[in-house]
Amino acid sequence: MSTKTNEVHQFEKILVATGARAANPLASKLDPSSCKNLHLLRSEADAARLVGALEDSQGKKEKEIVIIGGGYIGTEVAAGVAGWAQQGLVKSVTIVNMDPTLMHRVFAAGGSAAAAVVPEFLEKMMVENSKSNGEPVIKVFNGARIADIATNAADEIVSSVKLASGETLACDLCVLATGATPNTEILETCGVKFGPRKHVQVDSGSLQLLDATSGEAIDGAFAAGDCITRTVGADLEVVEHVGHARSSGKHAAMGMMGENATRISIRKKVRREGNDVTYLIPLRSRQCYL
Ligand SMILES: Cc1cc2nc3c(=O)[nH]c(=O)nc-3n(C[C@H](O)[C@H](O)[C@H](O)COP(=O)(O)OP(=O)(O)OC[C@H]3O[C@@H](n4cnc5c(N)ncnc54)[C@H](O)[C@@H]3O)c2cc1C
After folding, report:
1. 136 three-class SS
2. What is the pLDDT of residues 155-185, one digit of tens each?
3. Ligand 1 centroid to 147 CA: how many Å?
4. Atom nearest to 21 CA in ligand 1
5. For the chain, which domains are there?
6. CB 266 less than 6 A from any atom of ligand 1
7. For ligand 1, what atom is nearest to the CA of residue 18?
């Protein structure tokens, strides 16, 4: 393995845990590094940039915010940003969501009964609780597609977002909350197998990378966290959360050390002793401790 500064590292075993970054579906035209009022959210620095923009007193005071995406991050950002309306810094927060409901991918997964009730309730609560001077600050467009994003001549400022339905939303600040892209480009020429969204595919038992041609597990090469996909039943599953990052990381580490770790489970048993809480993650033949 060589680094960008040309350091070469030999290895017997390798773990790929490169995670993911916020997806930017506009990347061919717009990027937050050059477009001043376009925001992605992944790191603390991204959050600080967003707060700085909300509190910036140089531009228009009462900002109209457009959030593209109605999943976890889109809804959380909308709820948070709407709070700035109380200080007269935000006029409107509009979620443009291409799915039929908010959090659709969370609640509709596996045909959950909650899908029929929770997203609608969540939307109602968000809209009603965001009222300022009797008017809701948060608006939600479900099943909505972007037709065009208007910018200034230098593509430095997003000025409005046009929906396929014909509506045009004025935009002082645009947040892209459209999911994550795995950081797996470094493996593109290594002959490993990828899932449909460019996650590296791993063997469900040992979390070893798979050979793109034979589909066999590659000796000594492991991956864990947001960058992986693995077969669960008939499906390829991607899990993007901390519990999975921890348990898959631990599982891969055990595999690298030659432990008999045979499946991941993020179901936890909790053991309490006084103030100490131990989370036990059951594996098939043994338990390991978080
Ligand atoms: C805004 C936000 C809120 C979230 N909230 C929650 C929550 O409430 N609960 C929850 O469970 N999960 C939450 N998550 C998801 C959670 O953060 C991720 O699932 C978790 O961080 C994944 O861990 P990871 O180690 O796989 O990847 P990451 O945490 O993304 O770490 C990847 C690391 O690899 C490094 N890297 C990338 N490419 C390279 C390379 N080429 N060479 C060297 N290093 C590289 C990166 O710099 C980084 O240090 C949230 C995510 C976001 C973005």
Report:
1. strand
2. 899 999 999 999 999 999 999 999 999 999 9
3. 31
4. 30
5. 14-19+182-262 (3.50.50.60), 28-180 (3.50.50.60)
6. no
7. 34
